[in-house]
Amino acid sequence: MTSTATSRRSFLGGAAASAAAIAASGSLGALRAAMPVHQGGARLRIGVVGIGGRGAGATANALLAHPENVLHAVGDAFADRLEIGLAEVTVALAERQRQQQVDVPPERRFVGIDAIDQVLAAGVDAIVLATPPGFRPAQIEKAVAKGVHVFAEKPIAVDAPGVRRVHAACQLAATKGLSIVSGLVYRYHEGRRRLVERLHEGGVGEILAIQGDYITNELWSWPRQPQWSLLQWQVRNWLYYPWLSGDLIAEQHIHTLDMMAWIKRDVYPTGAASLGGRQKRVDPLFGTVYDHFATIYEWDDGTRGYSYCRQQDNCWRNVNEYVLGTEGRANVFQGTIAGAHAWRFDGKVPEPYQRELTDMFAAIRGGQRIDNGDYMCRSTLMALMGRMAAYTGQRITWDQAWNSQEVLMPEPLDWDGEPPPSEVARPGVTKFV
Asked: For strand 126-129 and strand 44-49, is the pairing parallel, antiparallel, or unpaired?
């Protein structure tokens, strides 16, 4: 088995080589020289791509982060989603803030899968990326190329080549002084931060095992309308197609997996075996994703991570992480440690969704930068490794996952064409690529 340290060197070295290759090839070539970060209280123009759902919430958080943050340009694949999302943003702001901070005339509202290009061309300082994850690698590359600070929702890719692209772009962002902030919001939760600190100080002794649950209800879906093409319908129902979402283990359960890696000091597992499938969401309305995964992650030091996720209605629910050590145990959601070093978090918890954007813009204005690029890429790969293991029925190593050549997201995507082929994976039949 490849050691975790060696695997990490491979990951970083491979990404560095990718960054150099991208720059040399010209796809991110003709880049502006390293740009100074913004300082002081000047207005910052914010763009958003994917303003429906979480995109509207993140945009409101970005505006509430500082009174001189101004929404300057908005893009979405669909006109109706754009207008609904924009209305949700304005509702989240007080009337005076709406007048001062929302400046999006019709000519800076862009519709289509190429909206990222138009939003960036409108001239923005920072961008919120909340489109389906399959679009994220190209969008992050383009934002960095333009010298724009990035807030990227999770996950940042649906396949390993996409992860490698994003990691290379994040390394390039560092040379340009650009902030890269991740939507892995648990890292911005004060209670979890304090608990992780205690664990790193030996709060449960040597960590033996971590259990991570994201066992919840089914999510939304949109029945196909006569005016929607098959591709448009899939993009609207992006949760249910691996080429758009990465499946639920990546799109939702990644929060849990990132927490497990964080507890392990951002040392990532070197292997994974997984069981998964479709038991309840078998209707074509739910595309080709699974509705449950049970994954065992293996660390070189012997730690095991037991990861469970499910999206099924009318079933037992639990979203939490549990840590078992030689001197105690921790309940992450409760913020407690029991055992030789008993402890409970009883402090205040600022709203973490707001905090991640507030911290981002405070750093930008302070002439500093936040770089979440490394863990957001590796936690995405951890999720994809679990999916690869479940889909194929094989044990998958970190190096195998990192070097996977499977490309799920087609580029360019023809908005007038058909979606890529997608079928339900069958363990023991579906091959690792």
From this structure: parallel
